[in-house]
Amino acid sequence: MPQIRPITDLRDTNEISEICHSNSEPIFITKNGYGDLVIMSIETYEKLVEGTRAEEIVTEAEPEYKAGTELFDAKEALSSLRKLDIPPLLRNK
Fold it and tell me: Which residues form a coiled coil (predicted)?
């Protein structure tokens, strides 16, 4: 269940950090009773970005598929992508 906290709770950064990491979901911060910020762990953010990018790729590919564009074998396509050595979007250091 999402947590909604007032902006004054940001004073206790350790508590907010622990909540973000333990729940793996964002915390919604309000200011004067209205939504103002969303805070989440970097892990949750990376999952969100990866999921969004995957959806964008599928959405982009659907018209090509419906138009009868040539299909490629998944193993061959992934193999050729690995050879390009493209760095991941966000890399843990």
Answer: none
DSSP 11: G
The residue segments making up the domain with residue 9 are 3-40
- Per residue in 26-38, pLDDT (tens digit) is 999 999 999 999 9
What integer pLDDT is reported at residue 68 of this predicted model?
84
Say what the pLDDT of residue 65 is: 84
Assigned domain for 92 exists = no
Q: Residue 68 region, left (φ>0) first, then alpha (ψ -120 to 50), else beta?
A: left
Are 30 and 6 in contact by the 8 Å Cβ rule? The answer is yes
Indicate whether 91 belongs to any domain: no
Q: In sequence order, what are the residues at sequence separation of 6 or more whose Cβ sits closer than 8 angstroms to the Cβ of residue 11?
A: none
Q: How many residues does the chain have?
A: 93
Together in a domain, 78 and 47: yes
In sequence order, the β-bridge partners of residue 4 are: 28
